[in-house]
């Protein structure tokens, strides 16, 4: 009980881009490298504002950091699989941007594989839009490359 | 890489990490997204990052030959799809080889093909490297000439592997002369490094390689051959004793040899020479036991002699393998990823599927009589030169 009280008095307040305040324990906050370095710079009473991170993202990140401390390896695996199961590709991208900004290393390792699986059947055009990439090939350059790699396109579905 | 607008985007490192999980064929497709993505296909750092991930998915390189055909067809597939449908499996890039070529081995996605011809008592060998995933094949290596009056036909043994210390791929040839009186002349060992222009000599073998079914098997930076210690000039298998058998392991980094003992429980000399292979990421030893059983050992931890574990011990009767030369007629093809299933081929072109857990045997017969050879394989972007 005493421990709980001291934990809450040490808790760190995080303000998301959509104006929601989260109070997290130092144990959780320290697993976000960006917060860790901000705590050192700020005095502990201040609320830390997070650009690029909305309430949904932060709640998912906290859910992960709390849940992954499950007792057994198989329970952790099960939790990790469940954690991303219901997220759309768009949600995963937003979450991954937040995770990249906050530097939550475990999620940075875990999430790319899931995203990779979901983009496997996507078209080149979809990927440019999804990753926000400008096509820097001239039309003739692109046509030439597509011709060279035509073999890799057998059986590709449109998205 | 230019970004389209001010909307927050993924960090470049994160995108690279995502891409490193994709199969090669998709990376090639996606190379027309932008110049940066195209450049990743030949970026050494990305190629290594991708290989780390793809090494977790075991594939096979299959060589299919029909008794009548002069050509061989080489293709790759996953162990899973081979199990489900062993005779169609062909997902990435077929290669039709003429009868001069054989698949020597596969390492980090590169397949080493060995070509051989002989004329007027001179044998010629050369290699080519092929990456089936990116459909690229190297030119021929320089020729290795063998005097067949000294080194009989079929007695030159090859191996293919990767030397991490120099980041190079090496082919090793062991030229054997079983009749040489001087020990140092029994074997001559040559190394060809991918991209070089010659076969260079290294120290000769510390024992005499067993000729039967025995190419060098690559494991943990070493090539391994089954060999006979203190071999008496010209002698036959009948006179070899169990304590003479050894695995000679050539470290590809410093090109020196070590010797590994066989399982201590293997206490009598098998009727025919055993063979070794690499299956399920373990060095395996196959041998006949008293002409009644087929035995497979796995060296669970490579280089640790007391980690030899008996993997299976099955009677030929249970496998329904007949004939006089039962051991010769069984060719192990693969072990499933979880280690539960062993697949073999018999002399009748029948596939034998053995389930370890319940000691069950299944057989699948193929109407076109196809002989198969398999090597474990991964997909990679490594350039074959």
UniProtKB/TrEMBL annotation, chain A:
Q: In which pathway does it act?
A: Protein modification; protein ubiquitination
SKP1 component POZ domain location, by residue?
10-66
Does the keyword section mention Transferase? yes
Q: Which UniProt keywords apply?
A: Kinase, Transferase, Ubl conjugation pathway
Top-level taxon of the source organism: Eukaryota
Q: What does this protein do?
A: Involved in ubiquitination and subsequent proteasomal degradation of target proteins. Together with CUL1, RBX1 and a F-box protein, it forms a SCF E3 ubiquitin ligase complex. The functional specificity of this complex depends on the type of F-box protein. In the SCF complex, it serves as an adapter that links the F-box protein to CUL1.
Q: How does it assemble?
A: Part of a SCF (SKP1-cullin-F-box) protein ligase complex.
Protein name (record): SKP1-like protein
Originating species: Lupinus albus (White lupine)
Q: What is the lineage of its organism?
A: Eukaryota, Viridiplantae, Streptophyta, Embryophyta, Tracheophyta
From TrEMBL, chain B:
One Pfam entry for this protein is: F-box-like
According to its UniProt entry, this protein's organism is Lupinus albus
Q: Which residues form a coiled coil?
A: none
Q: Which CDD domains match?
A: F-box_AtFBW1-like (cd22157)
This protein's superkingdom?
A: Eukaryota
Q: What is this protein called?
A: Putative F-box domain-containing protein
């Amino acid at each position: 009980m005493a421990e709980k009280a001291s934990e809450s008095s040490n808790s760190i307040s995080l303000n998301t881009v959509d104006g929601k305040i989260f109070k997290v324990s130092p144990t959780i906050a320290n697993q976000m490298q960006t917060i860790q370095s901000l705590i050192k710079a700020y005095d502990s009473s201040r609320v830390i504002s997070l650009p690029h991170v909305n309430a949904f993202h932060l709640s998912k990140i906290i859910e992960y950091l709390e849940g992954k401390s499950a007792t057994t390896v198989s329970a952790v695996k099960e939790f990790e699989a469940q954690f991303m199961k219901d997220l759309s590709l768009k949600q995963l991208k937003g979450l991954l941007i937040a995770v990249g900004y906050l530097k939550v290393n475990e999620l940075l390792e875990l999430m790319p594989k899931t995203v990779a699986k979901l983009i496997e059947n996507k078209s080149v055009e979809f990927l440019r839009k999804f990753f926000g990439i400008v096509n820097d090939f001239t039309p003739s350059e692109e046509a030439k490359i597509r011709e060279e790699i035509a073999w890799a396109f057998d059986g590709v579905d449109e998205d | 890489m230019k970004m389209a607008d001010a909307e927050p985007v993924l960090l470049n490192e994160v995108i690279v990490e995502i891409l490193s999980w994709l199969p090669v064929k998709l990376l090639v497709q996606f190379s027309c997204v932008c110049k940066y993505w195209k450049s990743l296909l030949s970026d050494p750092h990305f190629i290594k990052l991708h290989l780390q991930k793809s090494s977790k998915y075991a594939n096979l390189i299959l060589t299919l030959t029909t008794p009548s055909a002069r050509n061989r067809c080489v293709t790759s597939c996953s162990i899973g799809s081979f199990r489900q449908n062993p005779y169609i499996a062909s997902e990435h890039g077929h290669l039709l080889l003429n009868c001069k070529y054989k698949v020597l081995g596969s390492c980090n996605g590169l397949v080493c093909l060995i070509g051989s011809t002989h004329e007027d008592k001179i044998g010629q060998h050369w290699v080519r490297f092929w990456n089936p995933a990116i459909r690229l094949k190297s030119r021929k290596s320089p020729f290795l000439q063998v005097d067949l009056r000294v080194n009989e036909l079929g007695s030159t043994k090859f191996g293919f592997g990767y030397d991490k210390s120099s980041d190079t791929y090496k082919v090793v040839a062991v030229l054997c002369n079983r009749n040489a009186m001087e020990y140092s002349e029994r074997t001559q060992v040559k190394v060809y490094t991918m991209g070089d222009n010659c076969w260079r000599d290294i120290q000769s073998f510390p024992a005499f390689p067993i000729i039967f079914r025995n190419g060098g098997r690559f494991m943990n930076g070493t090539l391994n051959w089954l060999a006979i210690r203190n071999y008496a000039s010209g002698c036959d298998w009948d006179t070899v004793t169990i304590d003479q058998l050894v695995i000679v392991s050539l470290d590809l980094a410093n090109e020196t040899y070590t010797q590994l003992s066989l399982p201590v429980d293997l206490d009598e000399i098998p009727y025919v020479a055993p063979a070794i292979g690499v299956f399920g990421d373990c060095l395996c030893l196959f041998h006949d036991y008293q002409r009644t059983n087929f035995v497979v050992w796995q060296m669970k931890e490579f280089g640790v002699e007391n980690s030899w574990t008996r993997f299976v011990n099955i009677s030929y009767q249970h496998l329904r393998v007949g004939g006089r030369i039962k051991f010769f007629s069984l060719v192990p093809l693969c072990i499933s990823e979880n280690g539960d299933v062993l697949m073999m081929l018999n002399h009748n072109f029948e596939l034998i599927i053995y389930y370890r857990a319940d000691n069950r045997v299944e057989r699948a017969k193929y109407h076109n009589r196809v002989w198969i050879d398999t090597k474990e394989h991964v997909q990679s972007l490594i350039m074959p030169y």
